[in-house]
Amino acid sequence: MADQTNGPDSGKGGFLSDLFAPVGGFGVTFATMFRKVETEEYPEEKRPTQPRYHGRHQLNRHPDGLEKCVGCELCAWACPADAIFVEGADNTADARFSPGERYGRVYQINYLRCIFCGLCIEACPTRALTMTNFYELADDNRADLIFTKEQLLAPLLEGMLPPPHPMVDGMEERDYYQGKVTSSTPEQEAWVRAREDEPQDGLAPTGDPVIGVDTVADGRQATRDTTEAVRR
Amino acid sequence: MTGLGEQILFWVLGPISVVAALGLLFAKKAVHAAICVALVMVNLGIFYLAEQAPFLGVIQIFVYTGAVMMLFLFVVMLIGVDSSDSLVETLRGQRWAALLLALGLAVLIFTAVGTVTFGPMQGLDDVNNGAGNVSTLASLIFGQYVWAFEITSALLITAAMGAMVLAHRERLGQRPGQRVWAERRVRSGRNVAGLPAPGVYARSNAVDTPALLPDGTPSELSVSRVLVAREQVTTPVPYITSAEDVEGEIEEGYER
Amino acid sequence: MSNATFALEALTGIPQHLAALAPATTDNPKADFSDTPWWLSLVKALLIFVYLLLSTLLVIWFERRVIGRMQQRPGPNRTGPFGLLQTLADGMKLMLKEDITPAAADRVVYSLAPLIAATMAFVSFAIIPIGPDVWMFGHHTPLQLTDLPVAVLLVLAVAGIGVYGIVLAGWSSGSTYPLVGGLRSSAQVISYEIAMGLALVAVFLYSGSMSTSQIVAAQSSLWYILPAFFSFVVYVITMVGETNRLPFDLAEGEGELTGGFHTEYSSMRFAMFYLAEYINMFTVSALATTMFLGGWQAPPGIAAINSGMFNHGWWGILWFTIKLWIFMWFFVWLRGSLPRVRYDQFMRLGWKFLIPVTLAWVVAVAFIRGAQLGYLGDSTVGLVGREFPVATLVIVGVIAALALGATWVWEGKQADKVARESAPPPERIDPYAGGYPVPPMPGQELVEPSPAISGSPTPVALKEDTRG
To answer: CA C377 → CA A181, B88, C13, C451, distances in Å?
Structure first.
């Protein structure tokens, strides 16, 4: 018999090895019991994200506090899921929120539609819109998952003043864009302090609903980098 | 007299057995009747246990209730789904004649048993306390009565094999394959394209809803025979009317 | 006796030990219930109930954790420390769920079926000896609810009634999947009940009684797992089949039958089935412990300490529990390692392999016991300084020879089958034999269709024939 398939070896050895072949599986499961468990115990241990992780969006500011967003709506047009809603408005002398002519008056991202693709960041001409590494966005109702501008604005850092306030003297939008403004000036501070006494009832002098709110000191935090649930 | 425990046992289980036996007679569904029989048999087993015959009692439960009645239940559950019981009397007056005769039999048994006098209770203590109930029974089965038991078991085996042989269907030809089935269908001219599938509607596509023929009537061929026999077929009317409602709304919208 | 002596004697002197296993003089229970008033029996029943429920809570957690580790994941570890309260949480969830009854269901039987299944599971535990005689509330009583001369048969009988719960559940749900699942499951349980009973017959032959306390007492010198090893193997297989556990859980196979007989059940009724399954597991494991592992007796090494100190009183519960949980762990190990068996393969295994082989084993054991008890002659022969009964040696030799012969024949058949399957193709073929022209394989010769040119109808006739 020229081509005979390799059958079991004749004799007791073959019989035994055939008899105990299924037991090999038991050995595998038994040995697996003593292997290290690969499960990550979230939320006690969180694996850090990569540097360019596509997390929650953030509207950035210039170093003196003015918002970078010019209300051009390019991000809304770029979004494949139609998750961004922008309405621009004019900057006036009294109420200036961004360098240049216009600012984003209404800015909303619906995180139920957002697919975190990052096309909006690629579209933004001023690098106002970037993505943070924050991903804990779970919630239980639709209203809370539509993030408004206050929730998306970057927090005020050292040297920043909350808008509205005029640009630094002698600087234009181009200078802001080129990074020549590094901090707020005392004149801007004086301008803001002079108008501190005006009512902080959530309305800008122009009647717009959004004013520069110190989001860090205020309860409504723009960046949710804590694990506690945010009550709104 | 017997001990208190045995009396309580009897007076609790006795009526239960009688009710179960009556349930067997008057139950509407066959499965209920089978359950009643199983209950009677379990009670019988317990009575045997109470009468100091533990082996017999446990075997009664194990073999009769656990195996024989289970077989009954299987048959009752599987067969008879397609057919329905006919309650028409074939003999005229059968019910009244049966009742009368049963009454007569009952009178006969009661008078015969009622006139019997029983001596003092003996019980099986002398048997059980010696070698034990099982060993004594075994020595009887395999000693004194071995021929009776062996011949009876041979008879039972023959009966089982006879049932198997009689019910066995030998395949006389090859199992018909796909091609053979198709040829048969074409030759007979019925359902050449196969049976129609159950109805698929906008809001349901369950197998118990028939499909609609071109003129709007439901097709009986599109649901399984078993469901028809079990009367589990639903009508497609709600799906048709809901579709018509939606169409009506659309037309109304056009007109507005 | 010491560990080493025991091992040596067990391995080399099995016939000697078997001769020492004289059967009980009576098959009545050894346990003495004379000092047990009725209220003490009630207390014991309650204690057994609580023991079983706690064990079920633990075993569900245990199973999920162990299976998790076998799959290289932690298992439940959120509810309570180490996830211990997970079963409790599951129980609460089941209690608070909506109790659905399908419209086509037979209401009375639908509610009755889980009750039957759950109750019968508990009843089986009544005759399991968990420990020897102890002093409880001033009475000397065995740690066993009751005992009968036919105790083990009672367990099998009650398991048979428990099957009613399953089959009635399947039927009363009023839909096809549960019906088929219920019938499958009950057919499975009944088939393997037979093999289980036969496997236990060998143990009855060794112990001379069906009473559990007698069987435990008869294992005081040698546990039956050694002389009745084959029975043990068969019993373990059948016990997995009886309890509908993997690899035999086809009645609950989600891919095939959605949920089998408990598809339509929810909330507490489903919890009853779930409970019944786990209690059944405990019962068959307890029975295996009692029959093969010496019940509540301490392992041989520990039993020798201080002339049997660990074999008295309440220590029995510890050994019993340890052995029980070894079986539980084995159940879980099986579940983690093996895939599900197909139904026809499973039935074939039960009826065509297990039952005949176990029958043959029972006959062999009957002969061995007959030889030991002197039915086949009393002569002994001296070997290596010890006396061996001739009849036993002869019987054991004959059985070994038969086993070897059967193995040899089977091997021959396997070799034949392999040779047949790998047989080379025939050298001459008729290419039109199957109705369609088939090209020849390398080395084959064609049979020329004879008068093809003259148009003889013979090849055509051949074609009609083979199409059937």
So the answer is: 114, 70, 20, 79
